[in-house]
Amino acid sequence: MKSLPAIDRYSRQERFALIGKEGQEKLRASRVAVCGVGALGTVIAGTLARAGVGYLRLIDRDIVEWSNLQRQILFDEEDARTGRPKAEAAAKHLSLINKDVTVEPIATELNARSAQDLLSNVDLIVDGCDNFDTRFLINDFSLRHRVPWIYGGAIGASGQSMTILPGRTPCLRCLIETPPPPGSLPTCETAGIIAPASMIIASIESAEAIKILAGQSIAVTPGLFVLDLWNGTSKRINLDSLKDNPHCPACGRGEYPWLEGTLGSSTTSLCGRDAVQVIPSRAEGVDWERLKRDLSIKPGVQLTPFLVRFEAEGFEFSVFRDGRAIIRGTDDVVLARSLYARHIGC
C-alpha cells in the first residue's frame, strides 16, 4: 500500500470542524510544559506530540524502573535496565513519533527555585506529577503569571481532572486549600493502579489541552471530573459556587507560598516507592565532574551521561548532574539526608 505524504499527518484531526486547519496551525505554534512524565505524563506527551503541538517541555526528576512499564507508555525494557531519566527516555521515543515537534527534556526537580525557568514561556502547563506540593506550586505560578493549567491524578481504578483558567475558573486551592497530610491518601504502592485509569484521565487532560491550544477554551469542561473505572461511573462536580471566592488564599488573596518557597519540601518521599529524593541546598548545584570522579570509586558504580548509580550501606543511590539524588531502600527523609551527607557530601 502506498504511504501517505507527510502533509496528511493531521488530516483526520483537521476534519474535525472545531479544530480545522486554523486550529491545527495554532497547535503547531503552541508551547506546553508537561510536569511529570509518568503514567499520566507519558500519555499526555505522546498524545500532544501526535496532535502536532509544536513544542513540549518534559519535566521529571525520576528515572525509569521496571514497575513503570505496566502503565507508562513511552518507556521500554532498555530504559528500565539502564535507569534512564524519564524525561530523556520519553524525548527519545517521541522523536520517533513526530520529528516536527521540538521536545525539550529536563531531568530535574520542579520546585520554587526552578519554577521560573521551567514554567516560563509556555502557553499551557499540564499536570502529570504525583504529589500535591508540586501541584500547589504549579497553581501558584499559573495564577501569578496567568498561564492556564490542567490538574489530573489517578490511583487504583479512579481518577480526577480539573482545568484551571486564571480569572475565569476556580483554582486548585479553591477546591483544596491545603495539601492533604502525608499518609492521609492512598498511593500507588498502597492502593495500586491499573493502566486504563491513568490513561483515561491523561486522555481527558490531553483533550482539554487541545481545546485550549486550538483556540477553543470556551469548550473546556467546567468543574471537577471524577472517574471510577472499576464501578463504571463518572461524574462532573459543579464548582461554580467557588468562582470569585475572596477567601481563597491564592486567587482570592494573592498568596503564593509554594512559589515563594515558604511552603513545600526539598526532601521528599517518592510516591509508590521505598525511596527518598534529596536536593542539594546550594542554589548553584554541584561540580558534576568532581562528583562523578569521587563517586566512581564506590562499589558496583554505574556511570551514564545523566547519572551515577552505586550502592552503599545497603541503599541504592542515583545521583544526577544537578546533585539531586534518589536514595532507594528507605522512606525516612531524615535518614536519607544523613546518607546523602555521608556519601555525596554537599
Please render the helix and strand layout as text.
Blueprint: H1 11-14, H2 20-28, E1 31-35, H3 39-51, E2 55-59, H4 77-82, H5 86-97, E3 102-106, H6 115-119, E4 124-127, H7 132-145, E5 149-155, E6 158-164, H8 172-175, H9 195-213, E7 224-228, E8 233-237, H10 257-260, E9 267-269, E10 275-278, H11 288-295, E11 302-303, E12 307-312, E13 315-320, E14 325-328, H12 333-343
Parallel strand pairs: 1-2, 1-4, 2-3, 4-5
Antiparallel strand pairs: 5-6, 6-7, 7-8, 9-10, 10-14, 11-12, 12-13, 13-14
SS field, number of helical segments: 12
Under CATH at level 1, the class of the largest domain stands as Alpha Beta
Roughly what is the average pLDDT, rounded to an integer?
A: 90
Question: Within the largest sheet, what's the order of strands?
Answer: 3-2-1-4-5-6-7-8
Q: Which class do the helix and strand fractions yield? A: alpha/beta
Largest sheet: 8 strands, mixed
Domain module tally: 2
Proportion in β-strands? 15-25%
CATH fold assignment of the largest domain: Rossmann fold
Q: Can you name the CATH architecture of the largest domain?
A: 3-Layer(aba) Sandwich
Number of strands: 14
Q: What is the molecular shape?
A: globular
